[in-house]
């Protein structure tokens, strides 16, 4: 067994969890707070509020205005950032090792003392509306929002992370404050750090500065319910941007790592089946790839491709043909190749303090425990050709989800795709 990390975990008296990964050979540290709340935790009336709050957290607190937040971290050569996903929101910093206390103090400040100034709210509202417009103008981006909503219609998991313009335009300070009080409670927060740090010191600092968080436990979340369906939008573009998907599994499913290997074989790189058959041999697409999007309670497996209007009719049947091929036969060599790719990506990620930090936080949020790297590598290594073929037959069938944007006239109909997929 290989030992890669010096990892420790603690829980503060308020229920906030702390997890650290000591890397003695570096001079920096990445530290962040991951909140177990994202777009799928929003009511339809406030879709986009998680992302709005992420923006507003940096716009001023009781102790610092927006400029001071940025200036203090940059004065020590560090940087702050954040993101919102469907299941969580993250606020994180990277600093030199001696500046970790400052980073924790700033993170605690923005997560407990944000004032949500009305003038700042109006400015940031305009910024987010521009961000939504930019996404809408980027077809290979917006097609994934349409895909998600088609796969999981009329439920939080299907709604866009950025929210809808009409909702963002009227969202007010009181709604954001109420959402923050409800969802940003200590038991829903994980403070993770990786780098040249000491666990006990971080626990001591966190215990002192994260003293104003509510400590209620609210874990209600609407279950994922895959429906599938068809979305097509005609646009005057040079290419059709298309995503085809089927229902898959969540992170805790026994077949998760096998499905990850399956995705790598199908469309995980230049040597993958889809890339070789559709781009290299036939020249039907410049970009084609597969993906496994997993959540705590479900998931979706899909293929994205961009192709010309003339080639659109041929593309979808060829993708489905590759689905049939991998359900019928999987080679040991390609399975081993995919396993090496996955393991190499994981191990290379260990060289980054930011990657390690996020990995720790996500493990706690998803599994409620730390998952040793050896355990992950063993599960990947246990995958074989038989198990990949079995999982391919498990998920590469059933009701499809199709989303397409562009000159879509030559795409096969949904019923044609469904028949081919279920044949």
Q: What summary fits the major beta sheet?
A: 6 strands, mixed
Radius of gyration: 23 Å
Strand residue content: 15-25%
Strand order of the largest sheet: 1-2-6-3-5-4
- Tally of individual helices: 16
The ordered string of helix (H) and strand (E) elements is EEEHHEEHHHHHEHEEHHEEHHHHHEH
Top CATH class of the largest domain? Alpha Beta
Give the domain tally: 2
In whole angstroms, how far apart are the ends? 45 Å
Q: Which percent range fits the helix content?
A: 40-55%
Globally, the shape reads: globular
Number of strands: 11
Mean pLDDT: 95
Task: Describe the structure in your own words.
By secondary structure, this protein is of the alpha+beta class. The chain has two domains: 6-209, Metalloenzyme, LuxS/M16 peptidase-like (Cytochrome Bc1 Complex, Chain A, domain 1); 229-422, Metalloenzyme, LuxS/M16 peptidase-like (Cytochrome Bc1 Complex, Chain A, domain 1). Helices cover 44% and strands 19% of the residues. The chain has 16 helices and eleven strands. It has helices spanning 49-56, 66-74, 100-112, 118-136, 139-151, 165-168, 173-183, 199-209, 256-267, 273-281, 312-328, 332-349, 353-367, 373-381, 385-395, 414-422; strands at 6-11, 17-22, 28-35, 79-84, 89-96, 189-195, 229-234, 240-248, 287-295, 298-307, 401-406. Strands 1-2-6-3-5-4 form a six-stranded mixed β-sheet, sandwiched between helices. A five-stranded mixed β-sheet has the order 7-11-8-10-9. Strand 1 (6-11) and strand 2 form a beta hairpin. Helix 1 (49-56) packs across helix 7 (173-183) and helix 9 packs across helix 15 (385-395). The radius of gyration is 23 Å and the shape is globular. The chain starts with 5 loop residues before the first strand and ends with a helix. The mean pLDDT is 95.
């Amino acid at each position: 067994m290989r030992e890669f990390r010096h990892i420790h975990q603690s829980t503060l008296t308020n229920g906030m969890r702390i997890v650290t990964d000591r890397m003695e050979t570096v001079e920096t540290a990445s530290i962040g707070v991951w909140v177990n709340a994202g777009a799928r935790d929003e009511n339809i009336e406030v879709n986009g509020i998680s992302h709005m709050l992420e923006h507003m957290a940096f716009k001023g607190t009781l102790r610092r205005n927006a400029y001071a937040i940025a200036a203090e971290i940059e004065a020590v050569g560090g940087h702050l950032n954040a993101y919102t996903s469907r299941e969580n929101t993250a606020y994180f910093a990277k600093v030199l090792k001696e500046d970790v206390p400052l980073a924790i103090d700033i993170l605690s400040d923005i997560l407990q003392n944000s004032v949500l100034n009305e003038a700042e709210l109006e400015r940031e509202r305009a910024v987010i509306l521009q961000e939504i417009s930019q996404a809408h103008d980027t077809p290979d981006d917006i097609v994934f929002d349409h895909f998600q909503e088609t796969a999981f219609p009329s439920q939080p998991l299907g709604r866009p992370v950025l929210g809808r313009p009409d909702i963002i335009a009227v969202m007010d300070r009181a709604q954001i404050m109420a959402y923050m009080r409800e969802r940003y409670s200590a038991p829903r927060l994980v403070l993770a750090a990786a780098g040249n740090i000491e666990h006990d010191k971080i626990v001591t600092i966190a215990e002192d500065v994260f003293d104003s968080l509510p400590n209620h436990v609210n874990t209600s979340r609407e279950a994922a319910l895959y429906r599938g369906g068809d979305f097509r939008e005609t646009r005057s573009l040079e290419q059709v941007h298309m995503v085809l998907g089927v229902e898959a599994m969540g992170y805790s499913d026994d077949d998760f790592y096998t499905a990850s290997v399956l995705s790598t074989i199908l469309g995980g790189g230049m040597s993958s089946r889809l890339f070789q058959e559709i781009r290299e041999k036939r020249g039907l697409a410049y970009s084609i790839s597969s993906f496994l999007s997993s959540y705590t309670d479900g998931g979706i497996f899909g293929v994205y491709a961009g192709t010309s209007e003339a080639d659109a009719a041929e593309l979808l049947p060829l993708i489905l043909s590759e689905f049939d091929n991998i359900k019928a036969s999987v080679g040991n060599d390609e399975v081993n190749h995919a396993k090496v790719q996955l393991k190499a990506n994981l191990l290379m990620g260990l060289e980054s303090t930011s990657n390690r930090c996020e990995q720790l936080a996500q493990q706690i949020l998803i599994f409620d425990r730390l998952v040793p790297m050896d355990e992950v590598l063993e599960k990947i290594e246990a995958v074989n050709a038989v198990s990949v073929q079995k999982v391919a037959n498990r998920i590469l069938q059933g009701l499809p989800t199709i989303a397409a944007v562009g000159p879509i006239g030559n795409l096969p109909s949904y019923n044609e795709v469904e028949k081919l997929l279920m044949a």
